[in-house]
Structure formats: structure tokens, C-alpha cells
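Much of what follows relies on a compact textual record of a protein's fold. The record below shows the convention in full:
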Amino acid sequence: MKLFVNQKIKALFQGILLCALFFTLTALLIMGLGWKNQAVVLLICFWAMTLAILLLCYRYFREQHEIMEHAIDQMRAYLAGNQEASLACDDEGELYRLFHEVNALAAVLNAHVEREKDTKRFLKNTISDISHQLKTPLAALEIYNGIIQEAAEDFPDIREFSMLSEQELDRIECLVQSLLKITKLDAGTIVPDKTWENLAELAGAVRKQFLFRAEQEGKELCLQGGEETVFFCDRIWITEALSNLVKNALDHTEPGDQISIEWKSFASVVQITVRDTGSGIHPEDLPYIFKRFYRSRYSQDIQGVGLGLSLVKAIVEAHQGTVEADSSLGRGSDFTMNFLAGG
């Protein structure tokens, strides 16, 4: 039987069998000698045998418990990031076969992780190289476009088309920069440099950045939150995420709409919400808005490329946080970033 391949199980059953055999022989001997009070002596022998069996079982199950505790510790170490952690499987039996399979699974997962890291590094390096290669021709095109605009003072059509081409060049540059940032975050080459930041000050800086555009478009941009709320984060990257949400809100609102940046601090969570009273998001699109390059068939936005919200998600996840969207058609949208209060 496979059960008895394990030497410890075999030893346990052998010990129980020996105890039973010893008790049987002892009982036969006592009855053969005709001792007085045979019942009492047999009862004592029975309890002695029971105690011996219990001790054997206790010793076996204590060893099994220690083995399982060690296995759990190794699994926790692996989940914590120690890829060298493994389960001892240098014995025979079903349990050690299971440990061997777990080690094999961990080895496969390690290989997948390494392959994924290599893929991300390759992607990061490729996009980084492409972006650097694009910077020079983009800069040259912007210069040439500026010259054309100056030379086309008396040619309205040419000037109009040169201004449109400038907008497209800006879109290309924005796309390249967004791709570069996302791939760096994905590859794990950027570690957030966290410090304690005042959220009122941080949100105020973002509002100041977009205030002129909001006023030009007839939209209200306001702040709401405690003046003393602090948050342990990378100021540059959180500003980037918040700016993308505000820009997204401005892109999808009309004159007279309101956009607010709100923040709250709870016992264990810090929330930052960008809320608008715009047209809202169609229910069909809501599950996919954080996917890269996703464009809704209902969207009237011809400027976006579908990377802004993806970048927000990557930044928030780099801070071990979550981002979620809530929206109703005709009533606006809420984008909420949730972070652990301690960072």
C-alpha cells in the first residue's frame, strides 16, 4: 500500500501493533499463572497499553504538525517575495509528493515571473528607444511648423492648417510621454519616492495648473477637504495622476459644469476624488475605461488616445492603492483614488 511508503506512518502502525501484541501476551501469561486480582492487573495493563499508543500517536502528529508549520512558513516567505523558499521533500510518502509538486509549481511560477520581467524590460527599453528617437524629428517638425506659421501671415488657410498640424504634433508628444511613463511603472523601474504631503497644497497646485483653461471654457474648478490632511506619497506621481483626472473631467464637461477635487482621511484610508457634473460615462464603457487605448463608441472626444486613465491606474497601483469610477449618464462622474493612510 502507498500509505506505508512513508516510514513514519509505518513505524506508527508497527508501534501500535507491538503494544497490542504485548498486551495480549501479558494477558495470556497472567491468566496462565492464575494470579489473584487478575481483573485489576489486566485493567492496569490495558491502560498502560492505551497510554503507550496515545504517546506514539502524539509523537507522530506533533512531528506532522511541525512539518506543516514549517511548510506554511515557507509558503508565506514565498508569497512575501522570497523565490528561494521551498518545501523539504527529501522523504517518502504522499505528503512529500505533495510538497514536491508545490515546489515544481513554484519553479514554474518563478519562470513565468522572470519571463514577464524580461518582457516588461524589453518593452520598456523598446518604447524608451522609440520615444528618444522620436524626440528629435518632433522637435524639428515643431520648428518647421513655427516657421511656416510666421511665413503664412498673409495666407489664412495655410496658417490654419499649420496650427492644426501643431495640435497633432502635441498629441504625438503627449502619447510618447504617456507610453514611456506607463512602461516604466509596469517594469518596476520607478520606485515612488514617498514623503508626507499636504493634500490641500497638492490639490491647490493642480487647480492652479488648470484654472486658466477652466475659466476660458466657462467651467468651475473647486477644492473641498481638510487643510491639515497629509498623505505619504510621491508628490510628482500623485500630481500626475490627479492632473490626468482633472484634464479628463475638463475634456468631458460643458460650459457651466463644475469640477471638484475632494479629499478625505479616515482611520486607515485616504481618498482623493475628482467629481464632475458632465455628461457621464455610458454603462457599457464603465468596466473598460482603465484599459489602454480603449475608446468608447459613444465618446465625442476626438483628442484623447485612451492612455490618461491607464496612467492613473498604474500610478495608483504603484502606491499600493486602488482607483474606481462611478458615473451616471447626464449627471457626471466620480473618480476615486484610495490609499492606505500610512502609505
About this structure: The beta strands are 195-198, 220-224, 230-233, 258-265, 269-276, 322-328, 332-340. Residues 94-151 form the longest helix (58 residues). Residues 5 and 93 are 5 Å apart (CA to CA). DSSP finds seven helices and seven strands in the chain.
